[in-house]
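Repro:
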Amino acid sequence: MPRIVKTGWKLLYIVGAVVAIFLVNTLLRATPWVVAEVLGNAFFVLVFAVGTRSFRGRDEPLLPPRAWWRMTSRPTAGFVVASLFAVFTVTGVVFALTGLSAAHPAQAVSGLLFDGLIATAYAHSSVRLLRHPPATQKPLNKVRVRLR
């Protein structure tokens, strides 16, 4: 799997992912809502997982795969993403309880479940990174080789 290190490429991946998710969900509107919900969420998780496994921090080794629990290179990034999905979860609960959501109740529960799981995964990863910081690797452009 390719590693994405530069911020510009990460942003391009995120924009492309948002467009792809929108297109898939638009195409799935022609199917029964259960099929659309399952396939839409599966595609969302796939895109999210590929991004999580591909993105690397500047001080993170490129070749070995990340630990299964590790979602970001630094704890702060994980807390930001976890907070974002926690807000999605809370607003989803408020919309579902107040009737502002036009979604079927099962769709609302599904969205809340996925957003809550993603928030939990990122928060867990960040807490674990704070407790046990990984050994870092010098960026490739800053490595000096001494010849004798």
